[in-house]
Design a protein that fits this description.
The chain is of the alpha/beta class. The protein contains 12 helices and 12 strands.
Length: about 325
């Protein structure tokens, strides 16, 4: 099968090439991979000509126009190298008879552990201390954090990643609050957590970590109104999707001192910025530039998934989906 993988990154190629060269349960024939730097959108879709499938990443824009072009080129499968589907018009894909597959679980531990790393770094100001010491400044002024022990941690979104994060937080001796329409009472009981409302999490939590998908109900889940309900001095951690937080409202909450800080691995307008080297040109995004000026804001460039285990799983699952498609096996598609 010929697949054009869009938005290619150096860190993933070796994993795909390794998975493609090894025998797999449903195929002994390697797929023909074309690596493309361009993001998949309506302007670049033409690059998929001559291919049976396309590989898409988180910052592509697979809208109705893109789907129509792909179908016209003879593409039959869209393989997402991620779990989220918010960048794909699933209805349009179905109308054009494009099968969509994703990687529903690559490594929940990778993302959850990165969220913990962000929290510890932000709270104990490790990033600021590291920069000081490199400049031979060994002062401790301004580096005071707080014990996580006996603090309240709110987890919004209790899927695979949220559950791993909640388990880790329970190990710190925190009171864990869970919010998710599908939250399992058995899981909550297992780790000594409590399922509660979003408003109570905002009111009581010293730390709030976002692990929910992005959809019409969760877009700008944290806006001006919700920030005003939060416990003063609370920390926000977001390793989910950037648009879960309204950036303008976040900036105002930081400026007012309502928030104690924010650690973000995702950003509302990250496309065209994250995964790029802009060290020579700078960032042409006023809101992101403003966030970077706050000493109590920590930003990483959508790297929470970036572990050996996760990259291995993404490559293997993606190629397995291609194998099964070629073999005529029924594939599981994301729900509309």
């Amino acid at each position: 099968m010929k697949i054009a993988i869009f938005d290619t990154h150096k860190f993933e190629k070796s994993y795909f090439e390794a998975a493609n060269s090894r025998p797999r349960p449903h195929s002994s024939t390697p797929h023909q991979i074309t690596w493309l730097d361009a993001r998949l959108n309506s302007q670049s879709a033409r690059l998929a000509a001559g291919h049976d499938a396309v590989g898409s990443f988180v910052n592509d824009r697979v809208d109705a126009d893109t789907c129509a072009q792909l179908a016209a080129l003879g593409v039959r499968l869209i393989a997402l190298r991620c779990a989220g589907t918010n960048h794909v018009d699933l209805k349009a894909a179905a109308e054009h008879k494009l099968q969509v597959v994703r990687v529903p679980e690559y490594s929940p531990h990778a993302v959850a552990e990165h969220a913990v790393a962000l929290l510890l770094t932000l709270n104990r100001k490790i990033h600021r201390a590291h920069n000081r010491v490199r400049e031979m400044n060994f002062s401790l002024d301004g580096l005071v954090g707080f014990d996580l022990y006996r603090k309240t941690v709110g987890v919004i979104g209790v899927g695979r990643i949220g559950q791993v994060f909640a388990k880790i937080m329970s190990g710190f001796g925190t009171e864990v609050l869970l919010h998710d329409p599908q939250a399992s009472p058995d899981f909550a009981q297992q780790i000594g957590a409590r399922i509660t409302s979003l408003d109570e999490i905002l009111k009581l939590s010293d730390v709030i970590s976002l692990h929910c998908p992005l959809n019409d109900q969760t877009r700008h889940l944290l806006d001006t109104s919700r920030f005003s309900k939060m416990k003063p001095g609370a920390l926000i951690i977001n390793t989910g999707r950037g648009a879960l937080i309204e950036t303008r409202a976040l900036i105002q909450a930081l400026k007012s001192g309502r928030l104690g800080g924010a650690a973000l691995d995702v950003y509302e307008e990250e496309a065209g910025v994250f995964f790029e080297d802009l060290s020579e040109t700078g960032v042409n995004d006023d809101q992101l530039a403003r966030l970077l000026t706050f000493p109590n804001v920590l930003i990483t460039s959508h790297q929470a998934f970036l572990t050996h285990e996760a990259l291995t799983a993404i490559a293997q699952t993606t190629l397995q989906s291609l194998d099964e498609f070629v073999g005529g096996r029924k594939l599981s598609s994301p729900a509309l």
